[in-house]
C-alpha cells in the first residue's frame, strides 16, 4: 500500500482550486482496492489486492494518508468508511486514525483501459520505451510559445513507434519497435512532462506496456503492470520533423563519447558567461592513416578561455561551428554507450548527433541549429 | 517720391529693432558691457517686465567723460578695430550697436566715472535725442538706466509678452552670466524684490546654489580633467554637472558656455544628456554648468544677432569632449548608489495596518523624481528635515552649504563599506514574487527583480553591440508570429535595429513575421509573445536617446524576469551578482530604480532602540 500511495501521489495536484484534486480516491473494485489520483493533466490509477468485506469509496488528503501509512509497522491495514459519513478510518495493530475526506462522487472520472472501446492500442517493451523517452524528452520546449512543442510527437506506424521533440532550436527523434504490427497509422502529441512521469512509473517493469488512446481521442492511457497512467493530449500540428533532419552531412566526425563529453563540459564552464557558446573546430588528419582532431573551445571575456583537443575519425572537410553548450551536454548525457557521430554542415546549417555504430534504421537522431557568432 | 537718405533718428530706430528685440536683449547688452568693463559687482533692477525700468549698475572701469557721447553713436566700440579682430574675439560685445540702439527706443540715461576722474559724467538720451553731458557726483563704474523701453515703438511693445514672461527671460539670462562669471557678484532685483544674489567669490557651485537652490550643492560633481588618451585635442570641457538624483522638468538649469559665452546648442545638450541616459527618468533633465574652451577661430559666434547660437567648425569633437567628461564624472563620482528608505515617524502609532502607509522617502529631495515616494507627501509625515549627524541617513551626504565654500561632496569614508556601487548583499528571500530582500553591510536592501534584470540585460545588449559580437541563435524552423497593425508598423520601422541587437526577423505575409534567429542571451523566454510586447512599446514611441537605444531598452525590458515570477534562492543570488557587475546598477533602462535601502540606523530608530 505504501508503494501504491507513493506511485499515485505523483499525480496529486499540489496547488489547486479544486480541493478534491489534492485527495486520492480509494475504492473497492472486484475484490481489489483501487487507488487513484489526478491533477487533470495526468492521472494515475493502481490496484492492490485486498480482502474486501464491504464495498465502499472515499477520497482523502493524499499527503496525510501517505504520511500516516508510511510510519505504520509492516502489517495489514484495515480501512473502513462509515456509510453517510466522509471519514476514513485506518487501523493497523494498535494504531488508528480517522481522516476526514470528501465524497468520492466529487472525484473526476478516470477512464480505464478496457481493450474494446479504445480508439487505438499498441504494446511496447517497457525498458525500450523508457529509454526512448529519455532520449527525447529534454529537447521539448519549456516555454509556452508553441504549445505543441512542449509535447512529444508520438507516432505509431506498422511495427514502429517514433517519439520526437523539438524546441525550435534542436530536434530529437527516436525510433523503436512495437511488439506487434498495427493495421493503421496513428499520431498524437503527449505533453513532455507526462512522458517523464510515465517513464518514472515504468521503472524496472518487465511486462510490455500497453498504450491506448481513449475513445474521445483526447487522452493517452498506458498500462504498466497493475498501474494505469492517463495523460491529456496536446492538440495541434507538430512541425514536419523529418523535413528538418539534414539529408546528408558535409563533415562526419566519429569521436569517443567519454573524451568528447568531458571536452564539452570543460568548455561549458567558460561558456556560461558568454551565452553558452562552445566552438568546435574540426581538423581532419593529413592522410587516411592519421586521425584528425576536434578542438572544443570557449571564451568568456571576463573569466578566461579553454581549449580541449580530442582525437577523432573525420571524413569530409575542415569545419568550424558554434553550438549552445547546453544543447550538447543535454544529448551527451543520454547517449550512454559507444562512440558518437557528429555530422556538421558548416556554421549556418543544422548539425547532427547520432550513435556512431547506428542501427540501419537510424534509431536516434539529434539535430542542433548552430549559433551565429560575429567576431 | 524722391530718393533721399533717411534721417539719423529713423536709422537709429530701424537698427534698434534689429539689435533690441525685447527687454531681455537690452539688458543683455548692458550686462555684457559691464562685464567687458571689468566689473566685479553688477546689480540689476527690473520693473514691469523691463518696460518700466531696466537698470544696470557696475563697478567697472567706467567711460571717460570725453568718450561718453561717442559711446552713444552707432558702430562705436572699444572692442574691435578691424575685421580680422572679429575672429579672435574674446570680449562679449563687439558691434558697437548696443547703447545707441537702446537709447533710440527709450528714455535712456548713462552715468559713469573712471577711477582717475574726480567726477562722473551723466548723459541723457530721450528716444534717440541726446542731451548735453553734465558732470555729476558718482562712484567709479557705470550706471545705465533705461525707462519706458519701446515707448516710441508701440508696434514693438504690442509684441512683448506678459511682464512676468519677459522678467523670467531676463532673470534667466542674468543667471547665466552669474554662472559664467562666479567671480562677479551679481544681484537681481525684480519689482523691488530680491531675485537672487551671488557672492562673487569665484566658486561656481556656490553661484549655482544661490540661483537654483541648496539641493544643487551636494549633487554637484566636477567634470574631471581627461587624461591624454581620452582628451579631445583643442577642446576642454570644465565646470560641473549634477548627480542624476537632482533633475528638472526643463533644460533651463543646464547651461553651456563656449569661451565664456552662454550658448544654446542642441548637439551639446544631447551629448550631455546621453551620459545620463537611463539614469534619469524620461522627461527629466539634469542640471549643470559646462564650460567649453577652444580656439576662438574654431567657433563662429556671429551667426545670430543675439549671439545665442554658435557654429562650431568641428561640432562632433566638441560634443565628444562634453560627453566624455560627463561620462567620466558620473562613473567616478557617485557618493552612494542606493536611494534610501525612511519610515515615517508616526507609522507605529496609527492603528489599522492597511491605513498605515509607510512613507518611502529617498534620501535626497531630487530622488523623488524616481517615484520611490508615492506616499511621501500629503500623508502628514513626508520628508523630514535633514539631520546630518543622524546615522540613519547614509544616502547622499549633504554638507552644509556655505557661501564660497566648495560643496562638491566626497564619498563617505566609511571603512566598513567598500566604495562600490552595490554593496555585497546576502539574499534573504522574495516578497510578493517581485522584490528580493537582501542584507547588506548597513541594513536591508530591497531589489526590484524585474528592474534589476532589465538593467543586466540592457547592459549585456549594449556591451555585445559595442564589442560587435552579437551571438544569435537561429531557429531550426522559423517562428511565425502574427502582429497587429500597430505592431507591424513598429516592426517595419525597427527592422534594422532589431537586427543590430541580434534578431533576424523577416516579413512573412500580411502583418505576419518569421523570427529566424533571436539574440542568444534571450534564451528561455517565449520570444514570440515578447516580440509583440517589444513592438507594442515601440509603437507607442519607445524610450531612449536613439531608436536603436529604444529598441534595446524595450527588448531588455520585455525579455527579463518579470514581476510575480517566483525565483529560487540560487536564481536571486545570481541576479544580484549580475547586478553588481553592471556599470549603473541603480536604475533600469527606463530609469526606474532597481533597489531601495533601509539602513541599520533607520531600523534601530523605528524599533525604538535609540
TrEMBL record, chain B:
Q: Which InterPro entries match?
A: DNA_mismatch_repair_CS (IPR014762), DNA_mismatch_repair_MutL (IPR020667), DNA_mismatch_S5_2-like (IPR013507), HATPase_C_sf (IPR036890), MutL/Mlh/PMS (IPR002099), MutL/Mlh/Pms-like (IPR038973), MutL_C (IPR014790), MutL_C_dimsub (IPR042120)
Annotated stretches, region: Disordered: 347-369
Q: What is this protein's record name?
A: DNA mismatch repair protein MutL
Per the record, the coiled-coil ranges are none
The record, for Gene3D superfamilies, names: 3.30.230.10, Histidine kinase-like ATPase, C-terminal domain, MutL, C-terminal domain, dimerisation subdomain, MutL, C-terminal domain, regulatory subdomain
UniProt KW keywords: DNA damage, DNA repair
Q: Which GO terms of type biological process are on file?
A: mismatch repair
Q: Record's SMART domains? A: DNA_mis_repair (SM01340), MutL_C (SM00853)
Supply the HAMAP family for this chain. Answer: DNA_mis_repair
**Job of this protein:** This protein is involved in the repair of mismatches in DNA. It is required for dam-dependent methyl-directed DNA mismatch repair. May act as a 'molecular matchmaker', a protein that promotes the formation of a stable complex between two or more DNA-binding proteins in an ATP-dependent manner without itself being part of a final effector complex.
Read off the SUPFAM superfamilies from this record: ATPase domain of HSP90 chaperone/DNA topoisomerase II/histidine kinase, DNA mismatch repair protein MutL, Ribosomal protein S5 domain 2-like
One GO CC annotation, please? mismatch repair complex
Amino acid at each position: 500500500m505504501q508503494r501504491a500511495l507513493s506511485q499515485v501521489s505523483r499525480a496529486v495536484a499540489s496547488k489547486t482550486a479544486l480541493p478534491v484534486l489534492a485527495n486520492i480516491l480509494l475504492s473497492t473494485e472486484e475484490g481489489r482496492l483501487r487507488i487513484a489520483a489526478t491533477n487533470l493533466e495526468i492521472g494515475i490509477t493502481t490496484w492492490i489486492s485486498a480482502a474486501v468485506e464491504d464495498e465502499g469509496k472515499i477520497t482523502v488528503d493524499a499527503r496525510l494518508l501517505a504520511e500516516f501509512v508510511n510510519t505504520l509497522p509492516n502489517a495489514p491495514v484495515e480501512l473502513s468508511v462509515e456509510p453517510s459519513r466522509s471519514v476514513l478510518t485506518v487501523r493497523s495493530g494498535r494504531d488508528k486514525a480517522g481522516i476526514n475526506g470528501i465524497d468520492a462522487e466529487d472525484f473526476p472520472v478516470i477512464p480505464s483501459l478496457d481493450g474494446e472501446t479504445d480508439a487505438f492500442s499498441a504494446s511496447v517493451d517497457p525498458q525500450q520505451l523508457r529509454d526512448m523517452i529519455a532520449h527525447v524528452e529534454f529537447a521539448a520546449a519549456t516555454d509556452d510559445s508553441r504549445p505543441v512543442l512542449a509535447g512529444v510527437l508520438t507516432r505509431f506506424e506498422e511495427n514502429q513507434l517514433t517519439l520526437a521533440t523539438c524546441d525550435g532550436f534542436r530536434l530529437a527523434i527516436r525510433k523503436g519497435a512495437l511488439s506487434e504490427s498495427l493495421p493503421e497509422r496513428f499520431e498524437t502529441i503527449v505533453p513532455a512532462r507526462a512522458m517523464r512521469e510515465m517513464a518514472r512509473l515504468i521503472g524496472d517493469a518487465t511486462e510490455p506496456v500497453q498504450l491506448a488512446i481513449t475513445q474521445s481521442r483526447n487522452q493517452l492511457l498506458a498500462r504498466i503492470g497493475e498501474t494505469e497512467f492517463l495523460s491529456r493530449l496536446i492538440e495541434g500540428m507538430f512541425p514536419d520533423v523529418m523535413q528538418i533532419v539534414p539529408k546528408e552531412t558535409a563533415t562526419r566526425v566519429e569521436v569517443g563519447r567519454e573524451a568528447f563529453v568531458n571536452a564539452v563540459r570543460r568548455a561549458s564552464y567558460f561558456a556560461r558567461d558568454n551565452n553558452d557558446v562552445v566552438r568546435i573546430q574540426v581538423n581532419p588528419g593529413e592522410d587516411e592513416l592519421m586521425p584528425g582532431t576536434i578542438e572544443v573551445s570557449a571564451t568568456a571575456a571576463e573569466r578566461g578561455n579553454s581549449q580541449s583537443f580530442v582525437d577523432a575519425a573525420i571524413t569530409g572537410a575542415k569545419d568550424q561551428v558554434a553550438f549552445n553548450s547546453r544543447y550538447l551536454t543535454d544529448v551527451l548525457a543520454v547517449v550512454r554507450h559507444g562512440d558518437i557521430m557528429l555530422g556538421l554542415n558548416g556554421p549556418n546549417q543544422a548539425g547532427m548527433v547520432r550513435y556512431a555504430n547506428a542501427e540501419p534504421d537510424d534509431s536516434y537522431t539529434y539535430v542542433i541549429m548552430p549559433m551565429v557568432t560575429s567576431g | 517720391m524722391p530718393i533721399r537718405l533717411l534721417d539719423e533718428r529713423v536709422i537709429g530706430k530701424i537698427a534698434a529693432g534689429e539689435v533690441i528685440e525685447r527687454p531681455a536683449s537690452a539688458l543683455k547688452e548692458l550686462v555684457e558691457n559691464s562685464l567687458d568693463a571689468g566689473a566685479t559687482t553688477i546689480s540689476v533692477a527690473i520693473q514691469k517686465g523691463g518696460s518700466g525700468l531696466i537698470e544696470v549698475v557696475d563697478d567697472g572701469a567706467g567711460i571717460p567723460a570725453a568718450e561718453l557721447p561717442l559711446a552713444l553713436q552707432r558702430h562705436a566700440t572699444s572692442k574691435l578695430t578691424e575685421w580680422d579682430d572679429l575672429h579672435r574675439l574674446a570680449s562679449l560685445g563687439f558691434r558697437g550697436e548696443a547703447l545707441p540702439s537702446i537709447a533710440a527706443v527709450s528714455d535712456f540715461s548713462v552715468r559713469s566715472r573712471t577711477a582717475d576722474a574726480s567726477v562722473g559724467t551723466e548723459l541723457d538720451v530721450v528716444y534717440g535725442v541726446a542731451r548735453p553731458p553734465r558732470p555729476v557726483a558718482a562712484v567709479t563704474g557705470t550706471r545705465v538706466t533705461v525707462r519706458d523701453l519701446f515707448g516710441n515703438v508701440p508696434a514693438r511693445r504690442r509684441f512683448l509678452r506678459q511682464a512676468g514672461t519677459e522678467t523670467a527671460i531676463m532673470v534667466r539670462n542674468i543667471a547665466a552670466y552669474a554662472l559664467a562669471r562666479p567671480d562677479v557678484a551679481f544681484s537681481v532685483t525684480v519689482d523691488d524684490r530680491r531675485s537672487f544674489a551671488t557672492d562673487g567669490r569665484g566658486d561656481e557651485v556656490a553661484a549655482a546654489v544661490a540661483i537654483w537652490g541648496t539641493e544643487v550643492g551636494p549633487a554637484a560633481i566636477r567634470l574631471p580633467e581627461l587624461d591624454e588618451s581620452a582628451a579631445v585635442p583643442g577642446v576642454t570641457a570644465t565646470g560641473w554637472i549634477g548627480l542624476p538624483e537632482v533633475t528638472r522638468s526643463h533644460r533651463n538649469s543646464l547651461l553651456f558656455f563656449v569661451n565664456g559665452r552662454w550658448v544654446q546648442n542642441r548637439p551639446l545638450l544631447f551629448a550631455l544628456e546621453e551620459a545620463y541616459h537611463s539614469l534619469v527618468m524620461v522627461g527629466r533633465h539634469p542640471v549643470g554648468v559646462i564650460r567649453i574652451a577652444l580656439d576662438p577661430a574654431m567657433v563662429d559666434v556671429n551667426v545670430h544677432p543675439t549671439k545665442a547660437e554658435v557654429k562650431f567648425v568641428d561640432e562632433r569633437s566638441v560634443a565628444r569632449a562634453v560627453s566624455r567628461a560627463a561620462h567620466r564624472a558620473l562613473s567616478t563620482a557617485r557618493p552612494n548608489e542606493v536611494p534610501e528608505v525612511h519610515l515615517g515617524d508616526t507609522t507605529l502609532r496609527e492603528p489599522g495596518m492597511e491605513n498605515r502607509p509607510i512613507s518611502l522617502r529617498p534620501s535626497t529631495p531630487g530622488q523623488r523624481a524616481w517615484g520611490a515616494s508615492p506616499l511621501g507627501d500629503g500623508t502628514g509625515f513626508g520628508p523630514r528635515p535633514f539631520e546630518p549627524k543622524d546615522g540613519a541617513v547614509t544616502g547622499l551626504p549633504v554638507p552644509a552649504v556655505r557661501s564660497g565654500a566648495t560643496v562638491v561632496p566626497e564619498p563617505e569614508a566609511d571603512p566598513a563599506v567598500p566604495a562600490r556601487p552595490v554593496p555585497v548583499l546576502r539574499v534573504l528571500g522574495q516578497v510578493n514574487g517581485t522584490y528580493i530582500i537582501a542584507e547588506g553591510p548597513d541594513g536591508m536592501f530591497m531589489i526590484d527583480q524585474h528592474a534589476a534584470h532589465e538593467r543586466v540585460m540592457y547592459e549585456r545588449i549594449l556591451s555585445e553591440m559595442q564589442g560587435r559580437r552579437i551571438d544569435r541563435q537561429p531557429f531550426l524552423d522559423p517562428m511565425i508570429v502574427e502582429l497587429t497593425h500597430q505592431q507591424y508598423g513598429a516592426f517595419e520601422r525597427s527592422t534594422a535595429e532589431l537586427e543590430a541587437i541580434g534578431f533576424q526577423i523577416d516579413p512573412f505575409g500580411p502583418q505576419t513575421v518569421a523570427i529566424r534567429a533571436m539574440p542568444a542571451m534571450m534564451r528561455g523566454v517565449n520570444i514570440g509573445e515578447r516580440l509583440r510586447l517589444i513592438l507594442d512599446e515601440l509603437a507607442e514611441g519607445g524610450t531612449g536617446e536613439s531608436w536603436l537605444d529604444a529598441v534595446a531598452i524595450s527588448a531588455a525590458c520585455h525579455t527579463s524576469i518579470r514581476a510575480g515570477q517566483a525565483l529560487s534562492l540560487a536564481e536571486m543570488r545570481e541576479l544580484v551578482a549580475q547586478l553588481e557587475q553592471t556599470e549603473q546598477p541603480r536604475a533600469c533602462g527606463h530609469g526606474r530604480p532597481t533597489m531601495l535601502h533601509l539602513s541599520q540606523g533607520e531600523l534601530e530608530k523605528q524599533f525604538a532602540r535609540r
